[in-house]
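Example record for the data management plan.
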Amino acid sequence: MAQGKKRRFQGREEKAIRQELERSLEQTRLQLAQAYAGFNAVTDQELVESFIYEIQALQARYSYLLRQRKALEPQAAPVEGPQPSALPVM
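Corresponding structural encoding:
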């Protein structure tokens, strides 16, 4: 019976992690949109540069969060049978 409780706890914990990850992804998307809007609205060179750095930092965070989400996805079973060959380069 202890195994069943442990699995349910792990399932809830994983669900909470997934939800937090999705919230972080959405928040980062919104921050990116705001940073792009700010970038498009300013003309001062220093502000343009600061928005560029902010956008790059947010893109790095977004990529990290996407990798974390992908790591939580169950792995697909390998496809059996012949694999398609690569197309020749011309």
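Summary line stored alongside the record: DSSP finds two helices and no strands in the chain.
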